[in-house]
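Entry 14. Ran structure prediction on the chain below.
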Amino acid sequence: MVYTPHPGSLVGPVGANRYGWPIYQFLDPRDGRWRYVVRLPDGRVLYSDAAGDIGHGATDFGTRGAGAVLGAAGGFFALGPLGLLIGGIVGGIVGDQLDRRGKR
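Output, structure tokens:
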């Protein structure tokens, strides 16, 4: 029988960080990507990088962030500070739509 992980499941431990806390792989239900997490002695589980440094791996800049930055930059050059705000909002919306279409 083959084990198929479902979103939210922990696999591992796959290692330990410099403090000896176990590092697991976590199938993130938000986006379906595998992420590293560390289980602390008190039972909490926090996002980390592959080395077990806490706080890394939770960011997802992706298409939405890139769209917002590019839209804000274009808006700033075209209209100044007001264009920065408008371009960032519109760029974020466009990036979100592109991200959703890419996942189909």
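Residues 79 and 86 are 9 Å apart (CA to CA). Will compare against last week's run tomorrow.
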